[in-house]
Amino acid sequence: MPLLSLTRFLAAIVSAALLAAAGYLLWTWYQGEWTPNAQGLLVQVREPWRLWTGAGLLAWSFLGRLILPLVLAKSGGRPSRARRGQGQQLGGASGSLLNVERHGPAGAPILLFTHGWGMDLTFWDYAKQDLGNRFQLVLWDLPGLGRSKPPAGGEISVANFATDLRGLLETLERPAVLVGHSIGGMTLQTLVRDHPDAMDRVAGLVLLNTTYTNPLRTMILSRLLLALQKPLLEPMTHLTIWLQPLVWLSKWQSYLSGSVHAGMRLGFGKFVTASQLEHAALLATRAPPAIEAKGDLAMFHWDATGALGRSRKPLLVIGGDRDIVTKLEASRAIAAEAGGAELRVVEGVNHMGPLERADLYNDAIAAFALSVQPSATRDRRPPSPLDEPSAFEEPDRPGAADPGSPRPPLH
Question: How confident is the model over 212-218, as a mean pLDDT?
Answer without folding.
Answer: 97
